[in-house]
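Hi R.,

Here's the chain you asked about this morning:
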Amino acid sequence: MLQWEGAPHRGARLSMIALVGLIALAFVAPVRAADEVKSERANGKLVSYDASAQTIVVKEGGKEQPYQVKAEGSVLTRTTVTMNGKVAKFDDVKPGMVVIVYWKPDPADATRRNARKMDVPKIPKEFQEEVDAAEKNAESQ
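And the predicted structure, written out as tokens:
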């Protein structure tokens, strides 16, 4: 039977190179992930949308919170809007609708919130009444 003498050493060398590469990735990936800020989530009712100022205001627990939005642009840079699980536009969302906003702090100004996505979930009427009652209760306190 013929054997190639260099074959076992080459296989071991390739395995060692692959192992070193995996170890390097294990150290680089967490550093890269630590630099990236995760999105926060906020729930409330839409108060207003100002297309010229590119802002929305959402009432969360009795307090109005502004968010920066970008209605136009690529899917990677604009604020996406969905209503009942389908793609929508900011003009489709009316004041008083319950919204879920996914946002990140502005890297240049930590007091500003950049909205990445706004969802308008379908809420059954009886739950909407509960949401309205809870909001009135929060306002009175």
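The chain has a mean pLDDT of 80.

Let me know if you need anything else.
M.
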